[in-house]
Amino acid sequence: MSAHKQNIKQTPASSLPLILAGPIIRHVDNGQLVVWLVTSEAVTIEMSCYEAEECLGGTAFDNDHGGYVALGAHAHLHLLTFSPEQTFPQDTWLSYDIGIKPVANDAPMQWLSETSPELMYGEAKRPDFIIKSRIDHVLHGSCRKPHHAESDGLLRVDDVLATAREADADIAGQPALLMMSGDQIYADDVGGPVLLAVQQVIELLGLPDDPVEGLKNCSCGKELRGSDNNFYGRTKLLPDDKASATLRETFFMGASKPVFTSANADNHLITLGEVLAMYLLVWSPVVWRYVDLDNVELDQEKRARYQTELPYVQSFVEGLGRVQRALAHVPVYMIFDDHDVTDDWNLTRGWEESAYGQPFSRRIIGNALIGYLLCQGWGNTPDKFPVDLLDQVRDVLEHDTQQKHDDLVDLLLKFRGWNYSLETQPKLVVLDTRTQRWRSEYGEGEPSGLMDWEALSDLQQELIGQDAVILVSPPPIFGVKLIEVIQRIFTWFGYALTVDAENWMSHRGAAQVILNIFRHPRTPKNFVILSGDVHYSFAYDVRLRDHEESPKIWQITSSGIKGTFPEKLLLIFDRLNRWLFASHSPLNWFTRRRHMHIRPRRPADHTGRYRHQRLLNGNGIGRLRLNDQGEPEEIEVLWVDGQDIKFGAGYERDWH
């Protein structure tokens, strides 16, 4: 018997519920409401919007509307866009409803109270939300790994939204938006139970079994699932040649990083079907009902690893109903970081040459980008994505060939439209720090700048003339100096990949340009930077040295939603950073931020707090409240254990 054997539970399509995932509110402004939804059948849809019980209008979608993509035989994605005849009212409660009617039969239209009654808070008839005239309240976070040991931080989003709907609540309690700043999925670090679920969902929904090039004895997804190396052994699928050995060292080396990451690269998602299944599994509890996590046979070593991960995944699944409810009640914006595609994505020029030079790894990256486009990026700013690009995606999903798939991957790798901005008050600017890299001139192993000259020039033009801005940079612009120094030392010795040496200060050119943007005389006066990536949380006040009219800058980092840093190691880093880079330390003048004045904020009292703590380590979601000028009034992290931990202003002696 094969070491990985699994028998897929056969479920007739007729037993699947109409809604598999969603609805998720995506882009919202006073002229547009965008909702993401996946159904199990081809359907016609009606969507209506209400203020109290007054219908503000509605629109109908046929089974081949402009936001429709057939993901598989029993998975149909809909990006629904409703634009009212008159603009939506702001700063008041609105609600929406979605009616669904299968094309294949004469069943009546079913609305959300019938298809998904569990989505509602209290006695509500429909999901509700508020379009804020200014951003006064933001939830934000990153890094959500299903098989991480602790609970899901998105459960605290559900808590916040439930509280905002209590009878005596003010509209200020409803967040203007939820910003997810990277690693919404972990395509490269997949627990065994999650991979099993992914593959059962592919069979259940008829998701694509796309061709795979460059593997031994595997030419498509179905053959991959039948391989002895399917679970915990995918690096062994590469041919035994020099090029494959190089690829293993770069693309699949996550497991050899003992300090900064702990990756399960041996279960890396490969096919497009696997990526699409992963998104359905992280946004909704529905398809998990058809998954049998006991239906797998592994050898003793792999079984032990699987059993360790299993309770964490089961706990994750138990909370997904609340996550699905939360995402239906607040506008959600997203941007990728590396794990949405693969660890260390585009970290160095050498990494790019190795990964993009091999058809196997190039296809993995391309499949992750297709999944990101459909399940994250498209909903941020739907009008930004060309119709011909989406038509090409549809063609690959419906009539896939090796050449069509490769052509689409080539197109997505050249696409420069992943970043976006919202004309809100204050303006929200979301950076793509992954696909517009400033490649190092000093060597193929040197870290690339997170954005190139052209992208940074465009950013500066975007910021000029704004009074206040919220800038979303997945990696912090102002990080922990000690950790950045350690990364720099490893880079000197040629081990940039070993310590994820990708921070804004790691590349001289990119660092100088981003810091000069803050020094520009027409830069915003209030500058809030939201970040994630690092698996711990902190907040800094930042000012220019020797400038009487310095902009006010706040670096606010919230990470992870479901993922933490090694606890003892972070404690050591926190203390050493405070000692080595104190206000009087000459070491500050050897950093690229020597012209910036930085003061760490202090987290309030909480369980496990230690003296002089600056870095918080725990699963949760960040919360930011802003005043009318776009200045933070309250910065806090909402932990899954119920603790709400505020970052108070540091002391004057803390400036360094």
UniProtKB/TrEMBL annotation:
Gene3D superfamilies, alphabetized: PhoD-like phosphatase
InterPro entries from the UniProt entry: Metallo-depent_PP-like, PhoD-like_MPP, PhoD-like_sf
CDD domains in the record: MPP_PhoD (cd07389)
Protein name (record): PhoD-like phosphatase
Organism for this UniProt entry: uncultured Thiotrichaceae bacterium
